[in-house]
Write a structure and sequence with these properties.
The complex is a heterodimer of chains A (136) and B (468).
Chain A (H helix, E strand, L loop, with lengths): L3 H24 L10 H12 L7 E2 L2 E2 L9 H4 L2 H9 L15 H17 L8 E2 L5 E2 L1
Antiparallel strand pairs in A: 1-2, 3-4
Chain B lengths: L10 H28 L5 H4 L1 H32 L6 H23 L16 H19 L7 H19 L6 H4 L2 H35 L8 H16 L12 H11 L2 H10 L1 H11 L3 H23 L2 H7 L3 H27 L10 H34 L6 H7 L1 H34 L10 H5 L1 H5 L2
Helix pairs in contact in B: 1-3, 1-4, 1-18, 3-4, 3-5, 3-8, 3-15, 4-5, 5-6, 6-8, 6-9, 8-9, 8-15, 11-13, 13-15, 13-16, 15-16, 15-18, 16-18
Amino acid sequence: MASDKHKFILITLLLTAFLCYTGYLYISLPRKTSAIDEQSAAGKLVWQKYNCGACHQVYGLGGYLGPDLTNEYRFRDTSVIKLFLKDASIFTPVMPVFNMPEPEMEALLSYLKSLDASGKSDLRTFKVNQNGTIEQ
Amino acid sequence: MEPSNNKQLNTTKLFIVAGLVLLGLGMIYGLTGAIQYLVPGFLKKYFSFEKVRPLHVSAVVFWIILGAMGSVLIYLQQHTGKKLHAPMLTKIQLLVFLFTILAILTSYYFGVFGGREYWEFHPLLALPILSGWILFLFNVVKSIGTLKNQPVYVWMWLTGVVFFLFTFLESYLWIFPYFRNNIVNDMTIQWKSYGSMVGAWNMLIYGSSFFLMEKISGEKTYSTSRMGFLLYFIGLFNLMFNWGHHIYTLPTHHFIQYISYVVSMTELLILGRIIYEWRASVSAARRHFHHAAYKFLIAADVWVFLSLLLAICMSVPAINIYTHGTYITVAHTMGATIGINTFLLLAIAFDILHETCRSFEHNNKLFNRTFFVINGSLFAFWISLILVGVMQSKWQMSEPRILFGAMMLQLRPFLISFFVFGLILTIGIVIIIYPLIKNQLLCYFTPTTNQDHTPTVAKESMSDNDLN
């Protein structure tokens, strides 16, 4: 049986490394472009209020019933996005009829614009390195 | 010896019973969601997908959490040979969790959200969960007393309890604008917390299953061995640093990718050990396979192997870009939550709940058949998801891409197979858990009988269970 002393030393080292790593992540903001304004921040909460993530993904994370919306803003006209948010039944039988109020739609559009500016989610744009890592 | 009677359904067992009910509910919600993939707009007016998905996910997550908490509270008493430090706190903890879960599921029905993936409920409802967990932590820490000369499962329980609390709090850092108002950083912290949180509840469940394994086999050497602690520290190392595979494609710090990639390769040691000890495992399985709980432990062992194999592949960034955002990720989650977490918790549930005033003997034949049906259907369900994922991955990487809706139509044959095997799996799990819940409740509400139906194996551990 391993001695308790060794176990406590090992767990202290691991915990210290974990807390340093966590702390560094909390204080470092790696992508200045992904900081958002007040309107976009409100839009992010609208995204959560309607649980958009149940069906849609952001950077490949979220639901699978609808498409990834990370860069949707650059490919669709805002009037079309607004139609989806009002009543999507003219486009698809899957999406609920949200009848979203205008201020919420504007905020959500602003969030989608900021999301698009934060980076690209298209996996075809990634480069695979020989050591197995990837970069965009 | 006191005969099995209605007194046997106590607070700690209620954690498991309530968890089993949530498991059944979660499976039914999951099936409803699967129908919505095949019949677009099914029940859309009243029960659309953005409600069904969180109902499914939360019900299953709370099954895992309640099951894990119940198993720790019960086995901790069997380990120390003493009652919990504060039994009243356990009662309060259970009530807090049950009322909060009810409020969460009800809020989903009415379309009230506000949270994010896995915790979609309004953030205010996180407060009772947090307080319930703090009660749990207090009771566990005080009941354990000291870590000196403790077996590995006690270390695992303590690690799981502490890290769940930490990661749960971390997953709510988004309520502060400092975190929320930076899209990429916020997602980094979100998936850091989720990755480690899964590791935390795995610590609780694996700890309890080690305890159960030793209880059944009667061999008490593993939990104090160097190998046992080596694997614990590898698990802890991965819990802390191997969460980056969720966000390899996020434009965040590159070092997160490198650290996770390197750390995830330590899982090869666990995989190697499973292969190396395969023969010994099979021989042990032959000795104890008549035991219902042991059957599920063995099945979980096979699923650990399959899930680990998939997880290691997905941890290689160059492979991850083909699996990210596809159903291969869902296959991994299903393999881990059903094949590992649920099977281990079912093993624990059979060990804890099989002693009642009613006999399980007449269920044996049906149980044996259903056990194999569950495993077969889960494997077919898992393969269906992987095949859907492969198709989706081809679409993601294709140039030019067809429309998303057209791609979904191409997935249809595999989604039908995913639904059919999901249906068989749900029926199987309901057949397995129904007698466990029914017997507990019937014995609680019917007067004590003079007949003692307790099986021999159960009698041997009666002194343990009297503590519960």
